[in-house]
Amino acid sequence: MMDGRKRFFALILVICLLLTVVLVPVYANAAVLKYGSRGKDVTDLQTKLKRWGYYTGSVDGVFGPKTLSAVKYFQRKNGLTVDGIVGEQTAAALGMSISTASGSGGGTASSSNDLYLLAKVVYGEARGEPYKGQVAVAAVVLNRVEHSSFPNTIAGVVYQSGAFSIVADGQINLSPDQNAINAARDAMNGWDPTNGCIYYYNPAKSTSKWIFSRPRVITIGSHVFCK
Fold first, then answer.
1. Sheet harboring 216-220: ordered strands across?
2. How far apart are CA 47 and CA 58, in angstroms?
3. Rounded to two decimals, what is the model's pTM?
């Protein structure tokens, strides 16, 4: 009798181990769309959100800040967890499936690199400014990413010729502090104190007549933000 029970429990243990081996990789590799994702599924996502009035950006297959904000808006309106990630539940609510190829892939690394580069811009351009002003500087970079007149990546915007003086003078290589990192993260999560501005300047330092001609939206700390 004991041998039979031992064999039974041994069999159950083997089954549990097999299920762990088979199912854990499936869930671990479950495809999601999030900030930094690219591809056809992102294009489909943007198309749906745009058709339904949640998204106003370009349908370019790049999961950037505007797509992130649109996903959060959709999640909030549909009673879903508002995390900006298109996983199983959000995808089902959207009526779409996500292929592994268009899932997270290198999105986590890409998002982390983007965050750190954006934080370096914030630190170089706005350290000493009010926290809201630091977020605003980061938001300008992200707004340029979404604007047709600028490159469509954070690195492309930051390193565009003549765009930021901190690239020319080397301040872009300074290590950002936690405030700058937090400000960059808040901007990437959708906070835009500038309401869509793509330029900013310090009137005490700028000598460009052209920048003075841009429509002013808001002044935060030492910077004027404009479109």
1. 199-201, 223-226, 216-220
2. 9
3. 0.61
Q: How far is CA 144 from the centre of its chain?
A: 14
Residue 155 φ/ψ, nearest 5 degrees: -60, -40
Cβ neighbours of 208 (radius 10 Å): 9
AA identity, residue 146? E
Q: How far lies 203's CA from each of 130, 148, 195, 219, 221, in Å?
A: 17, 26, 20, 10, 11
pLDDT tens per residue across span 174-200: 999 999 999 999 999 889 999 999 999
Q: d(Cα 47, Cα 44) in Å, to the nearest integer?
A: 5
Question: Taking the CB of residue 158, how many other CB atoms lie within 10 A of it?
Answer: 22
Q: Cα torsion at 127, 169, 199, 112 (round to 10°)?
A: -60
d(C-alpha 84, C-alpha 222), whole Å: 32
Sign for the CA dihedral angle at 121, 123, 129, 132 comes to: positive
**Residues paired with residue 216 on neighbouring β-strands, in sequence order:** 226
The residue length of the chain stands at 227
Percent of the chain scoring above 70 in pLDDT: 81
Write the DSSP string, 176-209: P-HHHHHHHHHHHTT--TTSS--EEE-TTT---H
